[in-house]
C-alpha cells in the first residue's frame, strides 16, 4: 500500500507540474507583451567561427521579422537549459575532423547521448537545425546530424526542416533560403503554441507539412528534406530584410567593347536586374590606435599548447622538374620532449605574408601607424545581439602584429563583408558591382569570381580602388588566422627526439582576379627553410629556423592495438605521410617482438612520375624487402606505357584497388582488417570510396544501397578511417 501511495503521489506531482507548465505557457503567450512572447533561442556549435557567424546573422535578422532571440554557444551550458526550454530553439552546428561535432558542442553531445535519459526527455522541445559540412569529406554534416538524431530519439520535434549546408559548393546556397523560410516556420510554431489547440506531440506535424509530405500526403524520407531546401522561394524578399537596388543608367560607364563578366563587372541580365541585397551588418567594434609603444608581443602562448621548435632538416623530396614541390621537415624535439603516435598531426602557426600586410596597410592609409598599440572595445548602443570583442585580437598589440598573426587576410570575404564594403565605396559603378556580388541575383557571380577563385580582401581592394573601409570593419569580419595541420611522417621509436612531416608547396597561378601566389602556410614554410633546404642525400646546413607547433592527437587514425590485424593503406602523393610513420613503427615492433604474429600490410601509393615524385621510395622499397610491408602497390598517372606496350596500366590508386579487389574484400570482410585512406578529399577519397562500394557489392553480391550500409558499418567499427583534406 505504501508503494502504491508513493506511485500515486509521484503521478499527482507529475500531473501538477504539467498543469503548471501549461498554465505558464498560456500566460506566456497570451498575457505577455508580443515582443516577449515571440522570443526564441539560438544555440550554435562552431569550430572555426562559421556556425557562430550564421547564428549571429539569424539573431540580427530576428528583430526585422518581429521576433526577439537569445543566443549562446553550446559550450556555455550555464546560459541555457534545453531540459526545460519551452521556446522554439534554433541550432546551428558545424562538423569537424572525421564527422565529429565541433569542440564547443562536445559536452552537449555527451549529455544528450546519456543512455539514462528517458525516451521522451525532450518531448517539450520544438527545434530547427542547420547543419554545416563539406561533401568533399566523408560523414557530411555529421556534427549536426548527430545532435538532430539524438534529439529526435529523445522526443524533441522539428518545427522546420533540417538544413544541410555544403561548404564544398557554397554554404549560402542552402543557408540563405533556409534562413528566409525560418521566419514563416517560427510564426506558425508561435501561433500553434499560443492557441494551445494541439498537444505538443501534434505541434511538429502542423509546422512541417510543406517540408515533410509530398502531394499524396505520404511522409518523405530524410533525403527528400534536403531536396526541399532547394524548393524554398528564392524570389520572395521581406521588405524589412534588405534593400532593393536598381541600376542607374547615369552611373554606368559606356564600354566600347562587348562586356564579359568578371570580378569587376557584370553583364546582362544581372547588370540590369533589380537587386535584393542583405541588410547592412550592424557595426559593433570601436578600434583606437594609440601612439604608444605596443606591449611585448609573442606569436603563441603556452596556454594554447604551442611550443617553439628548431627545424633541424629540410629536404626536397621531388625533382626540380616535378609538377609539385614536396618538402620534408624534421623538427628537433629532443629538448622539449613531445609525445605523439603515428597518425597524429601537428598544428603549425604561420603568419600572413609580410608583403601582403604591407600592401594592406598602405591601401588603408595606415602604414605610418603600423606600430601603434591597438585598443578594441564594444561600440556603445550597437544593435548587434550578443556582441563581444573577438578573443583572437589581443589588446595593446601593434597593428602590424595583429594583421600578421591574428587575422586571416587571405580568407574569401563572406557576402556580409562584401555588403559592408559596398557602403564604403565611393564610385557608384564599383558600389553597384559589390552589391551585385552579395545579392541573391549575383550568387553565381559571387561563387565564380570570389569564392571559387580564392579572392581575398586585398584582391577586392585592388579591383575596387574607391573602396576605403575603416579598420574596425576588418576586425569585425576577418576570421581568426587558423593554424595549418600536417600529419606526422615518422615514428618516435625510429626517430627519438624528432618529428617529420611532409607537404607540397601549393601554387595558385595568376588569374584576372588575383596575382600568382603560393599557399599561405606551405609558401611561408618553403621560404622559411630556404636557407637550409637541400636536395635528397646532401649534407644538412648548420643554421636552424624555428616554428611554433602543437600536437593534434588523433582519436582513431592509429594502427590497430592488436598487431595481428591486417591493414590496407591508401595514400597517393603526400597522403603517404602517416603511413611512413605506421611502417616505421611496425618495423621497430617487429624487431623487438620477433616471435609475435603481425598481420599483413598493404600500401597503395600513386604519383605522377616514377622518377620525379615517388616520395619515400627508398624507405618503402626497404619496408617491402624486409617484410614490414607485405605488398607495395604503386601507379604513375603521367608516365608513358613501358617498352612492352602495356595499354591498361593502372593510373590511380583506385584502379589498383580494383585489381586487388579479392584481397581487399578478404581483409575487410573475413579477416576483420582495417582500411586507412589519406590524401585529397575532393577526388581521390571519393573515387576510393566508390571503388570500395563496388568491391564489397561484387564480393557479397548485394546492391549499392546494401553496400553503402556495409561501408557505413566499417566506419562505425572504426575499420574504415580517413585523414583527408580539400
Work out the helicity level: 25-40%
Let me know the average pLDDT. Answer: 85
Structural class: alpha/beta
Class of one domain in CATH?
A: Alpha Beta
Largest sheet: 7 strands, mixed
Could you please say which CATH topology of one domain applies here?
Rossmann fold
**Beta strand %:** 15-25%
Shape: globular
CATH architecture of one domain: 3-Layer(aba) Sandwich
State the total count of DSSP E strands: 24
Distance from N terminus to C terminus (CA atoms, Å) equals 67 Å
Protein name: Methionine synthase reductase
GO molecular function: [methionine synthase] reductase (NADPH) activity; flavin adenine dinucleotide binding; FMN binding
Cofactor: FAD; FMN
Keywords: Amino-acid biosynthesis, FAD, Flavoprotein, FMN, Methionine biosynthesis, NADP, Oxidoreductase, S-adenosyl-L-methionine
Amino acid at each position: 500500500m505504501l508503494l502504491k501511495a508513493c506511485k500515486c503521489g509521484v503521478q499527482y506531482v507529475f500531473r501538477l507540474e504539467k498543469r503548471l507548465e501549461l498554465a505558464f505557457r498560456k500566460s506566456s503567450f497570451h498575457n505577455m507583451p508580443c515582443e516577449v512572447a515571440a522570443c526564441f533561442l539560438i544555440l550554435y556549435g562552431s569550430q572555426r567561427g562559421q556556425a557562430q557567424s550564421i547564428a549571429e546573422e539569424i539573431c540580427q535578422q530576428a528583430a526585422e521579422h518581429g521576433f526577439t532571440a537569445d543566443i549562446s554557444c553550446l559550450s556555455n551550458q550555464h546560459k541555457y537549459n534545453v531540459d526545460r526550454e519551452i521556446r522554439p530553439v534554433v541550432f546551428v552546428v558545424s562538423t569537424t575532423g572525421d564527422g565529429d561535432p565541433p569542440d564547443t558542442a562536445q559536452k552537449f553531445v555527451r549529455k544528450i547521448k546519456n543512455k539514462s535519459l528517458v525516451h521522451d526527455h525532450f518531448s517539450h522541445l520544438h527545434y530547427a537545425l542547420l547543419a554545416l559540412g563539406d561533401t568533399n569529406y566523408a560523414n557530411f554534416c555529421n556534427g549536426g546530424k548527430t545532435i538532430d538524431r539524438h534529439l529526435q530519439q529523445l522526443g524533441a520535434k522539428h518545427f522546420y526542416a533540417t538544413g544541410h549546408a555544403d561548404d564544398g559548393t557554397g554554404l549560402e546556397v542552402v543557408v540563405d533560403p533556409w534562413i528566409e523560410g525560418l521566419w514563416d516556420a517560427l510564426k506558425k510554431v508561435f501561433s500553434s503554441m499560443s492557441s494551445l489547440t494541439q498537444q505538443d506531440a501534434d505541434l511538429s506535424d502542423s509546422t512541417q507539412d510543406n517540408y515533410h509530405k509530398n502531394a499524396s500526403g505520404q511522409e518523405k524520407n530524410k533525403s527528400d528534406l534536403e531536396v526541399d531546401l532547394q524548393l524554398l522561394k528564392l524570389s520572395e524578399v521581406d521588405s524589412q530584410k534588405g534593400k532593393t537596388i536598381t541600376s542607374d543608367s547615369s552611373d554606368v560607364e559606356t564600354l566600347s567593347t562587348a562586356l564579359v563578366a568578371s570580378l569587376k563587372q557584370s553583364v546582362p541580365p544581372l547588370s540590369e536586374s533589380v537587386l535584393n541585397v542583405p541588410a547592412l551588418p550592424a557595426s559593433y567594434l570601436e578600434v583606437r590606435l594609440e601612439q604608444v609603444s605596443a606591449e611585448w608581443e609573442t606569436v603563441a602562448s603556452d596556454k594554447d599548447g604551442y611550443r617553439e621548435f628548431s627545424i633541424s632538416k629540410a629536404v626536397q623530396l621531388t625533382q626540380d622538374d616535378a609538377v609539385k614541390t614536396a618538402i620534408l621537415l624534421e623538427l628537433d624535439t629532443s629538448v622539449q620532449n613531445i609525445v605523439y603516435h603515428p597518425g597524429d598531426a601537428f598544428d603549425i602557426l604561420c603568419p600572413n605574408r609580410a608583403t601582403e600586410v604591407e600592401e594592406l596597410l598602405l591601401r588603408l592609409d595606415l602604414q605610418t601607424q603600423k606600430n601603434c598599440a591597438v585598443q578594441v572595445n564594444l561600440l556603445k548602443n550597437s544593435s548587434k545581439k550578443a556582441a563581444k570583442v573577438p578573443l583572437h585580437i589581443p589588446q595593446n598589440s601593434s597593428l602590424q602584429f595583429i594583421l600578421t598573426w591574428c587575422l586571416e587576410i587571405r580568407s574569401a570575404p563572406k557576402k556580409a563583408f562584401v555588403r559592408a564594403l559596398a557602403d564604403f565605396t565611393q564610385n557608384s559603378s564599383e558600389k553597384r558591382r559589390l552589391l551585385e556580388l552579395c545579392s541573391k541575383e549575383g550568387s553565381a557571380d559571387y561563387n565564380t569570381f570570389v569564392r571559387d577563385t580564392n579572392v581575398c580582401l586585398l584582391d577586392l581592394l585592388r579591383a575596387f580602388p574607391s573602396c576605403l573601409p575603416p579598420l574596425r570593419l576588418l576586425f569585425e569580419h576577418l576570421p581568426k588566422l587558423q593554424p595549418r595541420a600536417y600529419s606526422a611522417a615518422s615514428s618516435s621509436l625510429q626517430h627519438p627526439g624528432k618529428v617529420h612531416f611532409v607537404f607540397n608547396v601549393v601554387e595558385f597561378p595568376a588569374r584576372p582576379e588575383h596575382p600568382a601566389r603560393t599557399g599561405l602556410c606551405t609558401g611561408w614554410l618553403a621560404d622559411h627553410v630556404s636557407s637550409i633546404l637541400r636536395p635528397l642525400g646532401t649534407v644538412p646546413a648548420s643554421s636552424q629556423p624555428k616554428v611554433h607547433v602543437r600536437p593534434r592527437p588523433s582519436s582513431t587514425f592509429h594502427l590497430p592495438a592488436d598487431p595481428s590485424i591486417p591493414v590496407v593503406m591508401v595514400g597517393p602523393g603526400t597522403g603517404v605521410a602517416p603511413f611512413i610513420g605506421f611502417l616505421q613503427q611496425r618495423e621497430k615492433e617487429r624487431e623487438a617482438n620477433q616471435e609475435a604474429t603481425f598481420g599483413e600490410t598493404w600500401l597503395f601509393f600513386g604519383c605522377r612520375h616514377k622518377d620525379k615524385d615517388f616520395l619515400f621510395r627508398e624507405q618503402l622499397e626497404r619496408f617491402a624487402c624486409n617484410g614490414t610491408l607485405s605488398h607495395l602497390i604503386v601507379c604513375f598517372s603521367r608516365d608513358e606505357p613501358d617498352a612492352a606496350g602495356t595499354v591498361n596500366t593502372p593510373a590511380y590508386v583506385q584502379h589498383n584497388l580494383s585489381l586487388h579487389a579479392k584481397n581487399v574484400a578478404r581483409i575487410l570482410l573475413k579477416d576483420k582488417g582495417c582500411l586507412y585512406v589519406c590524401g585529397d578529399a575532393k577526388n581521390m577519397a571519393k573515387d576510393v570510396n566508390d571503388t570500395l562500394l563496388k568491391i564489397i557489392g561484387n564480393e557479397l553480391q548485394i546492391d549499392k544501397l546494401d553496400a553503402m550500409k556495409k561501408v557505413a558499418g566499417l566506419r562505425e567499427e572504426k575499420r574504415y578511417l580517413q585523414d583527408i583534406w580539400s
